[in-house]
Design goal:
This protein is α+β, with helices and mostly antiparallel strands. Among the domains are: about 50-160, Beta-Lactamase (2-Layer Sandwich); about 315-465, Heat Shock Protein 90 (2-Layer Sandwich). About 55% of the residues lie in helices and about 20% in strands. It has twelve helices and 13 strands. It has a six-stranded antiparallel sheet with strand order 3-2-1-6-5-4, with helices on both faces. It has a five-stranded mixed sheet with strand order 8-10-11-13-12. Helix 5 (about 165-260) runs antiparallel to helix 7 (about 275-310). The longest helix has about 100 residues, at about 165-260.
């Protein structure tokens, strides 16, 4: 083999080695990009599964942190011309802060990503705005969202943490941010539609419940009217019978004074035989019991009629606590064998309210309180004025509510009762009614110690707008 041929073979081998090395670099680059793509896809998937904007942003930051580790990161969107506003921050600080666009930020917004070894040397004012004066390295990149140019800032406490290749890599990663935010918008449209459906169901069920209450009110008013008539007859007849029986015994006593001894002896024998003296006392007790029963039924009917007569949806200037007593009368049978009622009321000023709606709130809370008590408990009902507001408290010593459930206690359809024993609408409707009266209702509870519902209502001198 000649020297020339040998030289050509060496050069050919070098070219092959160079091609192999180039191919290996390309394979490594492709592997790196594939790994990046996998991370980006996983990050996008996690972002789309999030249910709040905060969760979505934090998912994006978590994905970015895998690609280029940071100690703090910020997403900024355009505000008024010449300023950016912090839309999200990994540190949960500085959100909604506004930054003036300086030459450094402008160069990134209009050009390529930048890796800065020590940002402290440039002393940008926005570090103070972001409360990020302790950081040194910075990685800045722009991305597009809704036809606007936005900014990503990643900061590290270590000098030289980011290099030029990191700037190139972050330029690819911002594609994730652009795609994810586009998907986020669609996701939130879906969430908003879902929330609207839930709200629509809540309103619909509220209307159904209101219709049921209205129908129940009309039915109860009719029943009360039907009961009231025979009770009136029974009451009148009892009084007449009581008077007639008393007159009969008076006649018997008068006869004793005018009969001859033989007839008197016969009368005494008959009186003893039929226990008339005993019946005289017995009749007095029987009539007293009957009158007490009639009086109680009459009082319940009057309470029921008063409760139902408030079934209008107009605002009236009245005592907002008046319905508590009426509601207790309606629940008297449920309460008497279960618990003891303690009432502490101070005088409260009249306020504009819708009586039947507040009665429904009292009914819901008292029914819940009674159902939470397992054995001879107590329900304390208080009403008083505090800071120009009317406060109503209903406190039971029942089984209580777990702390983990308190945050959802007013959610529509959420119930802590057994299946078939609650619709999950009572407290949701009660909260809506209280808010309608410009008030608030809160709950505090301890398991096995009891629950306190507190209603705070403003004193309204006119109906709310």
């Amino acid at each position: 083999m000649t020297i020339n041929n040998h030289q050509q073979l060496i050069e050919h081998n070098e070219r092959l080695i160079e091609k192999v090395a180039r191919l290996e670099r390309e394979v490594d680059s492709l592997r790196t990009q594939h790994a990046e793509s996998q991370v980006l896809l996983e990050g996008m998937s996690a972002s789309l599964q999030a249910s709040t904007i905060e969760e979505i942003y934090q998912s994006i930051f978590a994905t970015l942190n895998i690609q280029a580790s940071f100690d703090a990161a910020f997403l900024l969107t355009p505000d008024v011309p010449g300023t950016l506003i912090v839309a999200a921050a990994s540190t949960h600080q500085s959100v909604h802060q506004k930054l003036s666009v300086d030459p450094l930020l402008k160069s990134v917004l209009t050009g390529a990503a930048k890796a800065i070894i020590d940002i402290q040397l440039l002393k940008p004012t926005w570090l103070n705005t972001l409360d990020a004066t302790e950081y040194h390295s910075a990685l800045l990149a722009s991305f597009s969202y809704k036809s606007s140019v936005c900014l990503l800032i990643m900061l590290s406490e270590n000098k030289g943490a980011y290099l030029r290749q990191d700037a190139r890599a972050i330029s690819r990663i911002t594609g994730l941010v652009e795609q994810t935010l586009a998907q986020v918008e669609n996701r939130f449209i879906e969430l908003e539609a879902q929330q609207l459906r839930i709200e629509s169901e809540r309103v619909q069920n509220n209307l159904v419940q209101q219709e049921k209450m209205a129908s129940l009110g009309q039915l109860s008013a009719g029943i009360a009217h039907e009961i009231n008539n025979p009770i009136s007859f029974i009451g009148s007849n009892l009084q007449l019978m009581q008077q007639q029986v008393a007159d009969m015994f008076k006649v018997q006593e008068s006869l004793r004074e005018h009969l001859d001894p033989k007839a008197l002896s016969t009368l005494n024998n008959l009186t003893e035989q039929y226990q008339c003296d005993f019946l005289k006392d017995e009749f007095s007790e029987l009539f007293a019991d009957c009158n007490l029963g009639v009086e109680r039924v009459s009082h319940i009917v009057k309470s029921l009629k008063a409760y139902c007569q408030n079934n209008d949806s107009n605002w009236h200037l009245s005592d907002v606590c008046e319905g508590i007593g009426l509601t207790l009368k309606i629940l008297e049978n449920q309460i008497k064998n279960t618990c003891r009622i303690v009432e502490e009321h101070t005088e409260t000023p009249q306020s504009y309210c819708i009586n039947n709606e507040l009665n429904q709130v009292y009914l819901n809370l008292l029914v819940n309180a009674v159902q939470s008590i397992t054995d001879n408990g107590e329900i304390l009902i208080r009403s008083y004025c505090q800071e120009q507001k009317i406060v109503i408290e209903i406190h039971d010593n029942g089984i209580g509510i777990a702390h983990s459930q308190l945050d959802r206690i007013f959610d529509p359809f959420y119930t802590t009762k057994d299946v078939g024993k609650g619709t999950g609408l009572g407290l949701s409707i009660s909260q809506a009614i209280v808010k309608k009266h410009l008030g608030e209702i809160t709950v505090s509870s301890t398991v096995n110690q009891g629950t306190l519902f507190k209603i705070v209502l403003p004193i309204l001198t006119s109906p709310p707008p």
